[in-house]
Specification:
Blueprint lengths: L1 E4 L2 E6 L6 E11 L5 E14 L2 E3 L5 E4 L3 E5 L2 E6 L2 E12 L4 E5 L1
Antiparallel strand pairs: 1-2, 2-9, 3-4, 4-5, 4-6, 6-9, 7-8, 9-10
């Protein structure tokens, strides 16, 4: 299942990849406008070895009890328990067109 709130995407995954460390109990993702998306969850980030983050992708969240992702510019979104990869959508504008990219 995939959940999206503005420029934040939570993609449900089966399990956490190896090489992550617990970094907090609240997910805080800054959007393109500078406002922060927040959600109560165990947050995991890659272990950094010699300046290289492992694995390649950024944050992961483990939701133990149903929660909400909250942002001042969007309706709150209910998130069920599960393990999620946290992605961002960024908009890049060239001379010809705007392109949305998942990070």
């Amino acid at each position: 299942m995939i959940y999206r709130q503005g420029d934040v995407i939570l993609e449900e995954i089966n399990k956490l990849p190896k090489g992550l460390i617990l970094s907090g109990k609240k997910l805080m993702v800054e959007g393109e406008t500078g406002e922060v998306h927040t959600m109560e969850a165990d947050v995991f980030k890659p272990l950094v070895v010699r300046g290289i983050p492992l694995p390649e992708y950024g944050e992961y969240a483990v939701v133990k009890h149903e929660t909400q992702i909250v942002h001042s510019e969007h309706p709150s979104l209910d998130i069920p328990p599960g393990t999620y990869s946290v992605r961002r959508v960024r908009t890049y504008i060239s001379k010809r067109r705007a392109v949305a990219v998942w990070e």
